[in-house]
């Protein structure tokens, strides 16, 4: 296991030379590197599995704190706003992580032979941790070694990805992965509501519209939505708005007033209050602070 972990870190180090999130020629596979701890980052996590080769990170969803390292991997089941922070990294031993975005179609084909799943179960929180196994690391290595032979990627990468997902399904993530893949699960119903909010986050929505999309009652939607995301639909929308406004200002695309209007706020004072409540500082001071810590923006 120690030898495999060493090779895992070496492969990421070879193909992710600079700090940041790096796409690879392998579909849905990203490599992450940071040579120092980062600021807490409010960001939107998408369905994925994150496996660390070196270093340590924490993700906060509501009141729950998920700390993961090379012994624990993180699974994300739906798009959800979280606070992420790399807490163990250095120039000598940088944070190194592989992120594999989850493909629903691939998961679905693997589940066809797995037999019927229990129905009607309440969805679990969007984030969960599991122990890394030698079999999982072996599958990850077979995937990453393909970066040395790009011509093999189209044929062999799908096989290695399926093996990784198979290893996850053989562990204690079976129920969560079933929820992600199966169209009639409560999680997929909540995910449809999340999709509607994401597509129309600038607009005011009615809870009835979300209920219709999710195909559940308003009370069930509220209950299951909070179980998964640790927030209400309105709080979810607010975080999306404020994160997008922050991104626009940080990139220098507009000032606070323009950013607030562009994400759907009609009151600049309300925007400023809610921005400070989420990020801890008024917009102008927050952006000035962030520009002095560019490495804080490493999302995976």
Structure description:
The structure is a single chain. The chain is an alpha+beta fold and 300 residues long. It folds into three domains: 2-181, Jelly Rolls; 186-230; 235-296, Arc Repressor Mutant, subunit A. It is 46% helix and 20% strand. The chain has a six-stranded antiparallel β-sheet with strand order 1-2-9-4-7-10. A four-stranded antiparallel β-sheet has the order 3-8-5-6. The chain is globular, with a radius of gyration of 20 Å. It starts with a helix and ends in a 10-residue tail after the last helix. The relative contact order is 0.14. The mean pLDDT is 91.
Helix and strand layout, with pairings?
Blueprint: H1 2-15, E1 20-23, E2 29-34, E3 41-45, E4 48-54, E5 56-61, E6 64-68, E7 72-76, E8 80-88, E9 95-101, H2 104-111, E10 127-131, H3 134-144, H4 153-170, H5 174-181, H6 186-199, H7 207-214, H8 218-229, H9 233-250, H10 256-262, H11 268-279, H12 283-290
Antiparallel strand pairs: 1-2, 2-9, 3-8, 4-7, 4-9, 5-6, 5-8, 7-10
Give the structure's gist in a few sentences.
With 300 residues, this protein is α+β, with helices and mostly antiparallel strands. The chain has twelve helices and ten strands.
Attribute tags:
300 residues; alpha+beta; Jelly Rolls; Arc Repressor Mutant, subunit A; 3 domains; six-stranded antiparallel β-sheet; four-stranded antiparallel β-sheet; 20% strand; globular
